Amino acid sequence: FILAWIQKQGGFHNAIKVLTQSGMGSEVQSWVSNGNNQPVDSSKVSALFSDADIEQVANQANTSKDDVYSTIATILPQVVDSITANGQVQGNGSTNQIQQVMTMLGGLKF
């Protein structure tokens, strides 16, 4: 689901812009730079996705929409941090690279 959202934004670089423009600038900066990642509030994450999409994922995962938002809020910083090690995009932020990061994070289906 996160991978599909990144692709829908036009790729990793554009997804970073969307996140920054969605009121998560300081959080995104912490994920990209070296150091600790700031957490992101689920309410900020909820603005990125349609309610219908989240409901569909929740139904497929047999969980609540709040759990989906919470999981995305947990995973998204890790994905960005992993792809931007040392403050720079490692590789090209390709679909395969993002899939590898998602697998590394435990193969979560969101």
Task: Explain the overall architecture.
This protein has 110 residues and is an all-alpha fold. It has six helices and no strands.
Secondary structure topology:
Blueprint: H1 2-8, H2 12-32, H3 42-46, H4 51-61, H5 65-83, H6 95-104
Helix pairs in contact: 2-5, 4-5, 5-6
Over the alpha carbons, how many angstroms does the gyration radius reach?
A: 13 Å
Helix percent reads 55-70%
Number of helices: 6
Helix and strand run = HHHHHH
Beta-strand residue fraction: under 5%
Give the tags.
mainly alpha; globular
Short structural summary:
The protein has 110 residues and is mainly alpha-helical. It contains six helices and no strands.
